[in-house]
Design goal:
It is globular, with a radius of gyration of 13 Å. The longest helix has 13 residues, at 53-65. The protein is an alpha+beta fold. A hairpin with a 2-residue loop joins strand 1 (29-35) and strand 2 (38-43). Helices cover 23% and strands 20% of the residues. Strands 1-2-3 form a three-stranded mixed beta sheet, covered by helices on one side.
Length: 95
């Protein structure tokens, strides 16, 4: 398993504090890049004004550094493209 795959697996354990759903399954993780032990995670939130943003970022940082070999973590909050419910894994919403 690559470090990127291990980081994604670790991030599956991070649950949205309000919904109790993995942030990976919610489609909040846009990109994970790794270079020589330094990992950058691009992620979004369901709402740019989320009052729990700092808490979620801290959980992402903690989960990422728990992966063997990760020495440094940077989390970028991005809002383009904006998150929509259709990003949720297994979404069955109607259009």
């Amino acid at each position: 398993m690559t470090m990127k795959e291990e980081v994604m697996t670790a991030l599956e354990g991070v649950l949205d504090p309000e919904l109790g759903i993995s942030i990976v399954d919610m489609g909040l993780i846009y990109k994970v890049e790794e270079s020589e032990g330094s990992v950058t995670v691009d992620m979004t939130l369901t709402n740019p004004a989320c009052p729990l943003a700092a808490m979620i970022v801290n959980m992402v940082e903690d989960a990422t550094v728990s992966v063997k070999g990760v020495q440094k973590v940077r989390v970028n909050l991005v809002f383009d493209p904006p998150w929509t419910p259709e990003r949720i894994k297994g979404w069955q919403g109607k259009k």
